[in-house]
Amino acid sequence: MDYLQLQGSQSISGEIKISGAKNAALPLIAMSILAKNNIQISNLPNVADINTLLTLLSNLGAKCNKETNSVEIDTSKLSQTKATYDIVKTMRASILVLGPILARFGHCEVSLPGGCAIGQRPVDLHLKALEQMGATIDIKSGYIEARAPQGLKGCEIIFDKITVTGTANIVMAAALAHGKTTITNAAREPEVVQLCEILDKSGIKIDGIGTAIITVHGNGGKLIDMIDFSVIPDRIEAGTYLCAGAILNQELTITNAEPKHLGAVLSKFEEMGFGIEHTDTTISILPAEKIKPVKIITQEYPAFPTDMQAQFLALATQADGVSIIEERLFENRFMHVSELQRMGADITLNGHIATISGKSELSGADVMATDLRASSALILAGLVADGITNVHRIYHLDRGYESLETKLQNVGINIKRLKE
Ligand code: UD1
């Protein structure tokens, strides 16, 4: 197994190029199941989760011709409709194939994703919505078995909770349904917006894109003549590298970014005293005179993202004063706290609220990554810690950050990948 070793208290300078967004690419790859033609996806992040989904599609009979940052997918020979446990257990987002396979073939089996490190994460809302669209759903031997032999029917769906992959799944199912489907309380994340825009440009009319009420005009089951496209920049990767500049309190620029997707994150940097300068595609973070504490509540887009919570928690250890971070989306998303405490952070946890008293002098330690974003918080803490930090179990990190150590090395950070 690999681990990352980094030297703390370093200087950082220069530019980091942001990759395509993993969370946008995943539903877009699943969307290829609905395509009549081969589709070419560029600005694809070269990360493990993308390879996992491409393997899943290949196992189902699709042809995936992947280069480092692009892929051509041909699903014309896709014939299997079962996403098996061995793949789904490694990536919950595999559930994204349920809607499109069911819509195209009238049946689909997907291994039921279990709980994960950050909480229970049920998929009940995906299933309830598909039932409303006329599917029969059974749970048998750990599998979701969905059937809709006559095709799916458009209907009115009201999500009890906003769900990102749930919205994406139902939008894709609705694209091939008979009639129109209205989703109320839809996710408005940029990744969902891109999925809707590509479908809309490919001939599936979608009203209300980017709002909480989306109407998808289904085409009655015909495969779609899909356009080629480039994946939007990863707003979470962007936010993470801005945190690297911030935690070292030095200037850093990220390129190939989309500042419009980072509104809530950039304003938290400003509240903490950092300067932010941006163009259409670059963002620079400028040092703060004094890093101020912050209050953060994670919520659905456009509010502050839960996927940036761990990184800001690490950053708050360097603020002068008491910061409060409230996690509203996942019940168990503070696993990084105990590792940060081992590095000397002063953090009190009370349910889903973390109170961080800064500034703490962190010291390098052996720490263990517990989930994707928790891993990046440990790297950030390692950047300011005194001495050497070894971050173990970085397979979590490799799921979602492309070439993290190379990108950090390029801005002067002493970090290397080693074998246990
Ligand atoms: C997506 C992102 C993940 C991000 C999360 C929240 C992808 C691949 N992953 O995950 O990085 O942290 O959004 O922004 O895009 N819920 C239910 N029932 C359901 C579905 C969800 O109760 O059927 C709950 C979840 O447990 C959670 C909340 O709804 O508490 C939001 O989850 P959801 O938006 O579905 O997260 P994901 O789409 O899995």
Task: Describe the protein's topology.
Elements: E1 2-7, E2 15-17, H1 22-31, E3 39-42, H2 48-60, E4 63-67, E5 70-74, E6 82-83, H3 85-88, H4 98-105, E7 107-111, H5 124-132, E8 136-140, E9 143-147, E10 156-158, H6 164-175, E11 180-184, H7 190-201, E12 206-207, E13 213-217, E14 229-230, H8 235-248, E15 252-255, H9 263-271, E16 275-278, E17 283-286, E18 295-297, H10 309-316, E19 321-326, H11 335-342, E20 346-350, E21 353-358, E22 366-368, H12 372-384, E23 388-392, H13 395-398, H14 404-409, E24 415-419
Parallel strand pairs: 2-15, 3-14, 6-7, 10-11, 18-19, 22-23
Antiparallel strand pairs: 1-23, 1-24, 3-5, 4-5, 7-9, 8-9, 11-13, 12-13, 15-17, 16-17, 19-21, 20-21
Helix pairs in contact: 1-2, 1-7, 4-6, 5-6, 6-7, 8-10, 8-12, 10-12, 11-12
The structure holds uridine-diphosphate-N-acetylglucosamine (UD1).
Uridine-diphosphate-N-acetylglucosamine binds at residues 23, 26, 93, 120-126, 161, 163-166, 191, 305-307, 329-330.
